[in-house]
Amino acid sequence: MIKPRTAPGTLELLPTEQIAFQRMLDVIRSGYERFGFLPIETPAYELTDVLLTKTGGETERQVYFVQSTGSLDKAAAQEDPGLPELALRFDLTVPLARYVAEHEHRLTFPFRRYQMQRVYRGERPQRGRYREFYQCDIDIIGKDGLSPRHDAECPAVIHTIFTDLDIGAFTIQLNNRKLMRGFFEDLGITEAQQQVTVLREIDKIDKRGPEAVRDTLTGEAYGLAADVVQTLLDLVGLRSTSHDDALAILDRVLAASAGSPVLATGVAELREVLTVLRDLGVPESDYCLNLSIARGLDYYTGTVYETTLDEHPEIGSVCSGGRYDDLAGQYTKSRLPGVGMSIGLTRLFWQLREAGLVGTAESTVQVLVPQLDEAYLPQCLALATDLRQGGINTEVVLDGGKLGKQLKYADRAGIRFVAIVGEQEVAADTVTIKDLRRQDQFTVAREEAVRSLRVELAQPLGLPHDGSDED
Amino acid sequence: MIKPRTAPGTLELLPTEQIAFQRMLDVIRSGYERFGFLPIETPAYELTDVLLTKTGGETERQVYFVQSTGSLDKAAAQEDPGLPELALRFDLTVPLARYVAEHEHRLTFPFRRYQMQRVYRGERPQRGRYREFYQCDIDIIGKDGLSPRHDAECPAVIHTIFTDLDIGAFTIQLNNRKLMRGFFEDLGITEAQQQVTVLREIDKIDKRGPEAVRDTLTGEAYGLAADVVQTLLDLVGLRSTSHDDALAILDRVLAASAGSPVLATGVAELREVLTVLRDLGVPESDYCLNLSIARGLDYYTGTVYETTLDEHPEIGSVCSGGRYDDLAGQYTKSRLPGVGMSIGLTRLFWQLREAGLVGTAESTVQVLVPQLDEAYLPQCLALATDLRQGGINTEVVLDGGKLGKQLKYADRAGIRFVAIVGEQEVAADTVTIKDLRRQDQFTVAREEAVRSLRVELAQPLGLPHDGSDED
């Protein structure tokens, strides 16, 4: 006998949790589709040479390789077999780049796609960090160019989704890499690599605090002057409190600039993003300018985003992304600029569950038809068929047992309604409907059962029952 | 520059095809949920010792193993590294067995689950055979026992799904392994292994024809008497033409029996399945008894199913399954009998596409808001937000360009409606709506735009337009 167990670093859910997870996936998908993004899926594995063109050693060490038994045997027979031919994707961005480059001539640009699939990273397992996890990405890919207006669409759809997820207030935070780059140049930090490493240090402000970051930047490794560091920390301390405040901050930053054209471009892009966000009706309380956001990845070149839950800042960013100049330079000569955001749903779900924000979900099963007496099974089955044809998710108890036990099962499973067909009901051609949430019960004519349950299911639970169907 | 390409044996779709595929997934999920099945997902990979407990060499040769770089290095350093620690699932049945055994005490039995995920097999790539493909499974798992009534639920939900998929007439074919086993015993073929191999030969009737199978069975390898083979072929030639005919065939088989109790049990189980199928309202034209169905797998012990498309018999079975005595004997001492069916969606989709049955799907995008003049972009964005809040999937053109080009894009992408906000519309506070399918156009008051488009979208395309909103 083998002990049944999942591999380390994977999250497997019981059905009630899976339903809650699936509802989040559905909300995300619905939001992405509402904004006109098209679905794609890519294979879980890519050819290793295609997947690992761009990445350095850090990523490669986290990659999972895939081998059939045949190639294992071949590899064992060789002295230096090299890397296996196939590898599991570690994000959805490299597969997107490969997809767009491969199918470039059959896609319309700007290409707006969403993709919600699992990715794989050989990370050290720890609480809330998984080796297999869902990413739910949107990206808009232009050909040769892409208006900064698109940079407003990503936070707008994310706003819709986080509103619909109903997990409390959140703030989408915006910054722009060009603004930061210009500011650096104004301060005499002109070398790109130094800007990147300084940005990385600044990125740690939330974790290390400004004092520690100041010490690092004025210390031996960077050797920046104290006033330069102060100017920098003043900038990254800026957070807008309203839409107009954001615009005012941008004016001040531009006015204080020594005239860097790249800073001016960054400011202009952020202004356009803010304008389109407002025109799209995104409430100003739900977004802000936060000039400390740098994003760890080096390939962002314009707008960058992070999203935090106002009541759970400890969770950190739950949805991030940004603008990049060139999606697929490793696969095609076409210049494909893009902008995107990503929700790491497995981690978010785990965090929400830890924070007590994932409630016990109602079951996908809406009605249970219990079995009181085998003699009435045909009537129960016919009722179930009518309910199902009426679009109601229905389970019939086929094995029988005591009614109390069947009701208890429905209650524990989160099934809200029980539709009883027993001796009395068959004689009177009725159905008795129990609402386990409201602890309410009523009897309707058999032919009214579907309509009646559809009305009940369409009513939000908070509303009082109108009693017209009462027994 | 690396040539962007997918790994061999994978199916990757363009967005329009992906939408069609996703609609099929949605229909299947909706059907499974309508019948009260609960969702689960399992990790793509399992621990190798957990995954490969039961399987023989045939399966192992098709398994994909998963290794991080670290474990590759370790494996290379050893003389005989053995199998890697992780392996990709090759079906959803072994993960289900592991899941049920692992979470046994937190599940309610009968446990009714659906699972729609990709599985991996290192098969030789060939047309329509994929190494990565979706399986969409339902299973009902009992503890200690499970009424044969459940054996009717699987074909009933499959009936609903194939009706909703709208890919033409289909027939769900039923048989029972006990009936077959009893029949064999009556004929003096009492050894289980011989029954299995003879069943395998019989399973080839559709491919090889009855004559070739007869020759094999009377030949050296089996040495069965000609009259025994004839009786057997007469049996497996039986197909019912109606519900009553199916019951009559069962009566005849039982009457002709030499008294095998196992045959009688098989007949009784099939009778119960047929009764429940009728009580569930499944039309008798959509199922039949087909005593040639054996299913290749040895672990089925009762009811077995295959599903064929009436107009495309060449496709073979598109949904199969059956009853098994013991799901998870390798993981638990609990006896867990079950019954299930599986749709191999990737292969089915490919076959339907080859047969011309996958049409050009309407886009998930329902309305395109083109950009005629940058000056009216705020109005376009506000309209898009209203439409989206009204549940309508809407894309706004942010980059501009000629209207003709934007309309052409909508048409090619399968977007049905275009909602135009230009100079005239802004002045009159209206929206002009083009229906690209009906080649129709009308103008509505701005505040009526959402309601009007919702009405249009709710109407099936076949109905004539009522003209009340005409310009």
Describe this structure in words.
- The structure is a homodimer of 471-residue chains.
- The first copy, chain A, is of the alpha+beta class and 471 residues long.
- Among the domains of chain A are: 169-310, Bira Bifunctional Protein, Domain 2 (BirA Bifunctional Protein, domain 2, 2-Layer Sandwich), CATH 3.30.930; 367-458, Rossmann fold (3-Layer(aba) Sandwich), CATH 3.40.50.
- Helices cover 41% and strands 19% of the residues of chain A.
- Chain A contains 18 helices and 16 strands.
- Chain A has helices spanning 15-34, 48-51, 57-62, 69-77, 93-102, 150-165, 177-186, 192-203, 205-208, 210-218, 226-236, 243-256, 261-279, 345-354, 377-389, 403-413, 423-428, 449-458, and strands spanning 38-39, 45-47, 64-68, 86-88, 111-120, 132-141, 170-176, 287-289, 300-309, 319-324, 338-344, 367-369, 394-396, 417-420, 430-435, 440-445.
- Chain A has an eight-stranded mixed sheet with strand order 1-5-6-11-10-9-7-8.
- The longest helix of chain A is centred in the N-terminal third of the chain and has 20 residues, at 15-34.
- β3 (64-68) of chain A pairs antiparallel with β3 (64-68) of chain B.
- Chains A, B: One of its GO terms (molecular function) is ATP binding.
